[in-house]
Amino acid sequence: MAQETAEEPVLRLSEWLESLGADLSGIGFEGSVGHHRLVAGTKPCQSLQCSLRSRFMDFVTRRDSEVHLARFPLDQAFTARSIINHSIAGPGYQQASRGLMDERELIIFALMTERLKGSKSPWEPWISALPNTFDTPAYYSDVELEELKGTNLYQAARLLKQQMAAVWKRLEPLCVQLLREEGIHTDPPCVDDLIWGYSTFWSRGQAIPVSLKDVTEVEEGLVPGLDMCNHSVPARARWQLQPALNVLNVTLSPVNAKIRLAQASDSGPSNIFLMVERSTACRPGAEVTIDYGDKSNEELLLLYGFCTDTRNMNDQLMIPLLDTGSMPDDPTMEARLMLLEQHGCKPQLFLPFQLMENIHRPPAESRHLGSSCYIPRTAFDTLQIWCMSRQQLAEELSRKTPAKLPEPDAASKADLLDLLVHLLAKTVERLEGPQGTESLEADLGLLNRAEELPQRMLHSIIYRAGQKKLARHFLQQAERAALEQMGAPSPSNPK
């Protein structure tokens, strides 16, 4: 059989999408198999399938300022609901998933299984155009994973692989049975197939507002065709649901979200439109990109397999408190965790990049610890609770309603600063010491010759260098504040 050319999968995908009601007149697909991208066509979308009768909808669609490139029917999105209700594949998934999977797991299971079906899958033109592999840590070899040593992502990636193996033990019999019942003869499925489904879901999924009776819920899934859009900041395009709900570009979240929203008064069918500003419309053949949301490099690398740069404004340093050894065998730990929960805190510190960049203009919600040291209010409250004595914990927990934590006295503030310095020093050691990778200076030297580095190594270094910058900065500021608290002169800020 003749080997398929690079153009044939793109043609089959376009024809398949159009047969389902999509309008692709303003876009096209380019690239090699598994690495397609969405590009601008020569004319805008021809079928604006939404009501233009009311002034409200005239405003929402912004006909004068935006060009519609493509339309994707919402009922063709790959969601748990559409999978279960599919006329051909649905019955098999209804039986296989009954009481054994949540909606998110069902989508991942279906992605994996439909890929194994090959040409017998009703979604084959789309599935076959998806990547065969990803650059996320789930796909890293043991050697590649060593580039993340000392980071939170290193432990997360190792844990993810263990979790995938455990989930596969539960899902493997269901997958084998479903394929056998449908007469699919293929190589025995394995955990790598599940990891592919997981990676596909998280790297290409959307959180889509859908109207169900009087309630609008955010439904997770993939939109075939739209999922070919890559990320850029600023984005060249955006997507919007029409008839419009009062929510735009909802970002896929690790937590299922259900929200009640007002819906526009329009009885027409729901579609997702891809649109660009008329003043910045892409030239024909130029890539059409969207913004994946305000994500840190840690999230970008974990979900999509890339980082932006070491100055990602959404970056943050997460310091876990439970495994630092700072308070071993604490008999009051249960009370401490309970009080944290009452105040909306977790046993973790989150120190954001914005505080490092805006040191002279700190956000209103930050707390000043002395010198130039600012931390978020939630981090301050977490440290304060972590330093409380047994008596202080008992007094706070005895309140009928949680009250604002009392302002710490000088001694308590000194304890708080000592704990912060200790935690940050341990973090710097973990990132740059024997259990981590090289020093920040070594990482920056590697990034000076980025073009010579393999992609996975490059993005691992970008991520870990950003973490080292944050840890060093906050340690430096905390040490100055601690010296100031003791009445000792603090060293001048470095240039």
Automatic annotation (TrEMBL):
Give the GO biological process terms.
methylation
Q: Which domain of life is it from?
A: Eukaryota
**SUPFAM superfamilies documented for this protein:** SET domain
Q: Which UniProt keywords apply?
A: Methyltransferase, S-adenosyl-L-methionine, Transferase
Q: Name one GO molecular function term.
A: protein-lysine N-methyltransferase activity
InterPro entries per UniProt: Rubisco_LSMT_subst-bd_sf, SET_dom_sf, SETD3_SETD6_MTase
Annotated protein name in UniProt = SET domain-containing protein
Natural source organism: Apatococcus lobatus
